[in-house]
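Researcher: Sequence recovery benchmark, item below. Answer with residues only.
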């Protein structure tokens, strides 16, 4: 299969990436969803990739095989990879929905070890379940293990649900402690906010004086979010903008090479490969660099290796294009045939009366339809959508947006990376927004403005070769 920047398993989909960095390479373990039980059977194993540049991915095959229908880990769900006690350790979720009708726990924490990151041996005797006196037995997942230097012990964070409280507000980040990575003691939760059903895929790290807790909101919003604190004991503060990417980016976890920290999540596919379809579990891997802003909050920007790779060949350039749409909506097409993978970069400046402006991807002018990345002054947001919207039918791009202060006479810089039906946009090297495009393949882009004049400058369309 052709290598992809936004990696997707050759059969099925890529979900929940578990990153680990060592010896100059990011090792990316992921949940492989075959989406084909008839030919591949039920269950989800872990597979592994390796990359040094986020452009080329080497497939390393299956890492943790799924169990049988009678074993706890029929679905090998999310966990973590650490190096300790002279070995590599994977702690993962053993999930089996066939246990629930038997009144047995659906989920458990399980353990595997390796000497080389390739060959893994399960340690079934280390399996442990949620203590039923404190937590619901079917929500005990996504272990994240780190060594707590202050306490001189290992801590494991878990996505869990308490036994008591509001029925859809019992989610918490549970904590277990250990000195040997085999026996674990449940202690008080790290974060117990009383407003989530549960929050999945915990990830914890520290930059300077701030601790950061990344989690994925298990709700209809399906966002990857974060909290920040100056101490592990809290309190955990919500930043003004607490999300990474948007509605179509989930289960993101991070790793650092010592210089940059990279966030690895997935952009979901849609059912029936249709814009109107429902978002599905799993899709394509998308990586952002995350960084600490001056106020301590976190931002997202494109990885320099990807930008460099996609800047090798210039396909289009223009110093300046004005789109004057005073009182109307106006599109300015760019006459170009685009490859499957490319990058569009430009600066954008709105007049005082401009309501919305941006770029339309795959703009079919004869049908008067396409996809748009919008700077929306009326709603103070940056959004992805179809334009025009259908008169009544929901296209299901609701929530694919970021809060952004959009003001006239202020220059914004936008980078958009497109590969096949996946698109990712970055504004001012500060926020990211990913989505999908299933229709109008091969159609060129167009610049647009609504209710006022917009000036586009330094417009570049480039590709790898």
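Model:
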């Amino acid at each position: 299969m052709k290598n992809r920047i936004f990696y997707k398993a050759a059969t099925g989909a890529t979900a929940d990436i578990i990153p680990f960095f060592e010896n100059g390479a990011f090792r990316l373990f992921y949940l492989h969803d075959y989406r084909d039980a008839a030919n591949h059977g039920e269950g989800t194993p872990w597979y592994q990739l390796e990359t040094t540049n986020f452009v080329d991915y080497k497939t390393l095959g299956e890492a943790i095989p799924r169990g049988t229908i009678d074993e706890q880990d029929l679905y090998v769900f999310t966990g973590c990879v650490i190096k300790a006690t002279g070995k590599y350790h994977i702690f993962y979720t053993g999930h089996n929905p066939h246990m629930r009708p038997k009144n047995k726990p659906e989920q458990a924490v399980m353990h595997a070890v390796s000497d080389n990151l390739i060959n893994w041996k399960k340690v079934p005797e280390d399996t442990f379940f949620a203590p039923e006196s404190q937590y619901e037995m079917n929500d005990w997942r996504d272990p994240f293990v780190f060594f707590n230097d202050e306490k001189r012990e290992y801590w494991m964070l878990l996505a869990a649900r308490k036994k008591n409280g509001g029925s859809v507000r019992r989610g918490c980040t549970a904590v277990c402690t250990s000195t040997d990575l085999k026996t674990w003691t449940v202690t008080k939760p790290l974060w117990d906010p009383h407003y989530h059903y549960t929050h999945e895929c915990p990830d914890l790290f520290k930059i300077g004086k701030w601790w950061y807790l990344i989690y994925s909101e298990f709700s209809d919003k399906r966002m990857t979010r974060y909290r920040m604190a100056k101490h592990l004991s809290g309190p955990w503060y919500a930043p003004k903008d607490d999300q990474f990417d948007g509605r179509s980016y989930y289960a993101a976890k991070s790793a650092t090479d010592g210089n940059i920290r990279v966030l690895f999540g997935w952009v979901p596919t849609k059912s029936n490969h249709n814009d109107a379809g429902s978002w599905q579990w799993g899709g394509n891997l998308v990586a952002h660099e995350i960084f600490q802003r001056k106020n301590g909050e976190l931002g997202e920007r494109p990885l320099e290796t990807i930008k460099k790779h996609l800047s090798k060949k210039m396909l289009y350039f223009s110093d300046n294009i004005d789109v004057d749409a005073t009182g109307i909506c106006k599109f300015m097409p760019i006459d170009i045939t685009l490859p499957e993978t490319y990058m569009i970069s430009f600066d954008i400046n709105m007049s005082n009366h401009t309501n919305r402006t941006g770029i339309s991807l795959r703009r079919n002018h004869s049908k008067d339809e396409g996809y748009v990345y919008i700077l929306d002054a009326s709603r103070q947001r940056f959004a992805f959508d179809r334009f025009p919207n259908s008169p009544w039918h929901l296209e299901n791009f609701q929530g694919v947006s970021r809060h952004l202060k959009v003001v006239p006479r202020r220059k914004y810089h936008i980078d958009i990376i497109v590969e096949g039906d996946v698109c990712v946009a970055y504004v001012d090297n500060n926020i990211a927004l990913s989505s999908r495009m299933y229709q109008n393949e091969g159609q060129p882009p167009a610049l647009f403005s609504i209710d006022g004049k917009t000036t586009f400058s330094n417009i570049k369309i480039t590709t790898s070769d």
